[in-house]
Amino acid sequence: xxxxxxxxxxxxxxxxxxxxxxxxxxxxxxxxxxxxxxxxxxxxxxxxxxxxxxxxxxxxxxxxxxxxxxxxxxxxxxxxxxxxxxxxxxxxxxxxxxxxxxxxxxxxxxxxxxxxxxxxxxxxxxxxxxxxxxxxxxxxxxxxxxxxxxxxxxxxxxxxxxxxxxxxxxxxxxxxxxxxxxxxxxxxxxxxxxxxxxxxxxxxxxxxxxxxxxxxxxxxxxxxxxxxxxxxxxxxxxxxxxxxxxxxxx
Length: 250
Ligand code: 6PG
Description:
Distance between the termini: 8 Å
Shape: globular
Bound molecules: 6-phosphogluconic acid
Mean pLDDT: 95
Order of helices and strands: EEHEHEEHHEEEHEHE
Strand content: 15-25%
Radius of gyration: 17 Å
């Protein structure tokens, strides 16, 4: 079971445990950062929310504080809860506490979603921020060097939840997405942004994700889950999963 597997479109990396997953995530961030900066002079990355990224962020803060050129690294967020930045639910707060406050990244390099605003306004503001930063002509898409994603046990990723409106969005970069199970809005990247990335890396940890991961990677589900529509058009798709999450893979 251990080791790497590659099919024509995606790579699966299975690591022993959550600690190894955090290290692998850190190494992938560092590898992509140095490659992008060498080639394009900067590294544009979108962070994921939830719990799994905490370990990756802690590894980056501990091992890459002095070894990465943080002034050339630009951080965005793939999704956000509709809460102010100091709220315990805030993905920005988690990233600030576990990484951004511990490395010498210029404040202006961190592009936070203004999720204290009403969700539709926050989505419009973030889209404008991204269009300005990437100098996008109308109708064009940004090309992130790396987008980190997580996987919910219902098959959601970013805040693209099953049966939610945002799944259909094909013209906006960022939308406010009403999520019934939370009776709340989330602000999320849309599929075109995810699928225009140079690389997307899913980080998946724990036994609770084994069933959904098996269904997604074996494409055995009757109705595809939101995470299954993440397939970079001209980029790499990497799954980094720990042994527990991989427990049901054939
Ligand atoms: C969020 C995330 C979400 C997350 C998954 C997995 O804001 O919650 O962006 O998509 O990645 O729910 O979360 P865990 O890593 O906590 O399992």
